[in-house]
Every structure is written in C-alpha cells, then in structure tokens.
Amino acid sequence: MNSQLITEKMILKALLNLEPESWVEVLDFIGYLRQRQKMGMAKPAPRQMTARDLLQSGLVGLWADRTDISDSVVFARQLRERAEQRGGNNVVG
Fold it and tell me: Which among 25, 43, 49, 81 is placed 20 to 30 Å from 17, CA to CA?
C-alpha cells in the first residue's frame, strides 16, 4: 500500500475496529517503528545482487587481460600468503 494514500483518519478507523485488548500490541509496534527510525533502519535493506547483476556489472572478466595471472587459484593463494607475512594473519579459517 502506498504510504501517501494512507491518512490519519484511515489509521484511526483501523485502530477503532480492533478489539481494545489489541491496542497494547499496536503501541508496541509503534514503539518498534520509532526505534527503528532512530537507528536509521527505516529504509529497506538493499536488494541482493543476482548472478545476472554481477555479469552486467563489469566485474566479471575485469582482469581478463592481465598476463601475470595464469592460474587464479595459485594467484589467490599467493595473495593470502603475502597478507599473512605482513601481519594480517588474524583470519580464522
């Protein structure tokens, strides 16, 4: 439902159509929304990237023309070893 179409009157009408025993839940939910808003969580999480998105992003094949990477598995292992030698060996795994 588009939030611009919702009026205060509609919310009040929906509230009055609830059993009064449910009002405490409404207040709890309003409190939750306020807290979420304060924490900057009001915006929905960004959409996760799909395989199609990744392919269209330009990242796939970005280093295809590099001549110093003949075997990507060996290259990745070498990068990890260099990082560990620099003191970045606090990786769990």
Answer: 43
Q: With left for phi above 0 and alpha for psi between -120 and 50, is residue 40 left, alpha or beta?
A: left
How far apart (Å, rounded) are the C-alpha atoms in residues 42 and 75? 42
Give the total residue count for the chain. Answer: 93
φ, ψ (nearest 5 deg) of residue 87: 100, 5
Alpha carbon 20 to chain centroid distance? 36
- DSSP assignment of 26-70: HHHHHHHHHHHHHTT--SPPPPPPPHHHHHHTT-TTTTTT-SS-S
Summarised one tens digit per residue, pLDDT across range 20-29 is 999 999 999 9
Structural domain boundaries, residue 12: 3-38
Count of structural domains, the chain: 1
Which DSSP letter does residue 4 get? Answer: G
Nearest-angstrom CA–CA distance, 66 and 61:
10
Residue 19 lies in a domain: yes
Average pLDDT score over residue span 37-52: 79
